[in-house]
Amino acid sequence: MSKPKTPDYMMLVKWSAMVAAVAWALAHRLGAEAAAIPEFVYVNF
Amino acid sequence: MSLSLLDLQFVLLLLAVAVGRRVLPLSWHVRFGAVASAALIGLASPRTLVALGGITLLYLLPARALIVRAKASSQKTAKVIALTSIFGLVAMMVLFKVHLFFEVPFLHGSRLGKEIVALIGFSYFLFRAINYLYMHYLMDLGRDDPLMVLYYTIFPPTLTSGPIHKFVDFKKQTEKVRQLDWPTFRDGVYRITRGYFRKMVIAFAIDGLVNRLLEANQWNTATSALLIASLYVFFYFDFAGYSDIAIGFGQILGIKVPENFRTPFKATSITEFWRHYHITLADWLRDHVFIPLGGMRASRTKAGAITFVLMVLCGLWHGLTIPFLLWGLWHGTMLLAEGIAGSKPIPPAKRKGPKYWGRVAFTNVRISIGALFFLPSLDVVKGVLLGLIQPLG
User: b/e string for B284-312 if b means 16 or more Cβ within 10 A?
Assistant: First the structure.
């Protein structure tokens, strides 16, 4: 039996929450620093 | 502008390409995709475009023509040509890695240094290039449109960090192009958002924690365990997030990008873990190295030995440093042991109970310890490992 599809409104809720979190991260300049990382293996802690 | 899916300019231009593709006739899909991708890369780094475009058009296409022509008369000659041209690509990768390792620290900040950093996804380009030649050697794929081949090798969403496409899949998709519909667009945007969330919110929060622990440099059972777990989770969310973004952008550009991660945390052995983590690289290594070296028909010990060497090389591929070599040895040894023992994954029906979760935990602990070797200094690795046996307080 195939897996039931997530209802559209649930997808919208999850999507909105993620957009809000990413916007928050960008506003706190987290994203600006993350954007400086070109590839995961070259991350310099 | 960089070629990263975290660069806003690059992302906006990629969206413009998606819009362009949507409004143009379907018959233009490949030509437009290839030219727009080349323009995008050229804008970010002209040197990268010259290098990647040059290798595709002046090396891959003639090599493919020679392989196909030789196949018609002598399989042996075709094999020699295919092997020689693939070794040429491998030599480029080795040279690039050595160059990157020795030159970048001294060129940091210079124009040349930045250009080299812009070529950071070079090895992913070469993985696709090798797949292209190898598939033409193995199969009869017919004629290729040069622009389609270029589109395959420089497809922007997967250019710098994968997932690694198989040429045959990519070609099939460009032959049966479909117009972007609402469900595909919606799912693509959802996937992109999830990717940014994983990378920019979760991974970056964990990165902050890792930084604080490393700055404090006080290692005991709790801090060492926390750092080891954090590193493992960080790498997963960082890389799986980036793969999500690439898959989502692929969707809205009309190309299905292969999955790169499938719940690796539920793996019950290291062998199973590598079938669920960075899947496209593991598949690539299996198809292009393990199988041609006879790994499928070999004894358990020989197959384990091939895997061991592959993992060591994979470690060095991350960077020519002692910690990466140790990472390769760590994973290689565990895979060799599992190969010799003939370890089998637990069947789905039996995936419950303490025995199952015990194996899951044991696998995750070993993978986490391996993640430590991604730290830049071996002294820190030593300090963290010794900290594990230092009681609290």
Answer: bbbbbbbeeeebeeeeeeebbbbbbebbb
